[in-house]
């Protein structure tokens, strides 16, 4: 098997006296989706901030292509081909699709002092990149990003990362605020990014979303990797329980369902 594109080995992170991550070892490979699961405050965002140059590990090493490296800044991460897409960050509601696609890398025509932003060309490239990912409802690069749906915005951000040569795509809860249809769209795009050979790190609280795209799963509990397994090695119930820190969420779900089935679809009253 080839070396992982990105690996963390024995990474710890503390903020002053607060230990947030303990001895994290994780690998992501080309053409593979790693789902990072865990409850609120488990350390998922902190972990991906270490991979995207926002935070530095307190100890431990980061490897790229089998070689130890550092990621001192977000700029360094993007130079190394690590793209991070946040739920709401990264897009600019009052910018057009074409403009936002080329933020920081503006397309120009002409030369020297006559360089101007080439709106038409930027729009054509942006719209094509998004449509290549199957978002065919987007036809006009002059449309404002703020007018896109949440799923379309996520798709635009992912298409942009892939277009500019990302090798590692980090998605922090991209489907959290989306309806079923939009989430499905984003999941399809994650699969497409994987098919194109990117390594994808996908954070979600939704086990079904994780199972739809994940090849590999890591569950964080209070800053440590509590479980690390491959697709097919655990059931949905087992994963749900792990995410709830071992509490039997699945049996709770089953209890509620049994109650509802025998009470005409009404959920149980809240516990007194
Ligand atoms: N800059 C910081 N200084 C001190 N503590 C921090 C800092 N950043 C994060 N933490 C703490 O680290 C822990 C993990 O936070 P993190 O945001 O990584 O969790 P998460 O798994 O992403 O949670 P969620 O699912 O709610 O997004 C939390 O207890 C948080 O308060
Ligand atoms: Mg988080």
Compact overview of the structure:
The protein is an alpha/beta fold and 272 residues long.
Structure description:
With 272 residues, the chain is of the alpha/beta class. The chain has two domains: 159 residues, P-loop containing nucleotide triphosphate hydrolases (Rossmann fold), CATH 3.40.50.300; 56 residues, no CATH class. The chain has nine helices and twelve strands. The longest helix has 16 residues. The radius of gyration is 21 Å and the shape is globular. The model has no long low-confidence stretch (mean pLDDT 86). The site of magnesium ion has 2 residues, from helix 1.
Secondary-structure map with pairings?
Blueprint: E1 6-15, E2 18-28, E3 32-38, H1 44-51, E4 59-64, E5 67-69, H2 74-79, E6 82-85, H3 97-101, E7 108-109, E8 116-117, H4 119-132, H5 150-163, E9 168-172, H6 180-195, E10 199-203, H7 207-213, E11 216-221, E12 224-230, H8 236-243, H9 249-262
Parallel strand pairs: 3-10, 3-11, 6-9, 9-10
Antiparallel strand pairs: 1-2, 1-4, 4-5, 7-8, 11-12
Helix pairs in contact: 4-5, 5-6
The protein binds adenosine-5'-triphosphate and magnesium ion (MG).
Magnesium ion binds at residues 44-45.
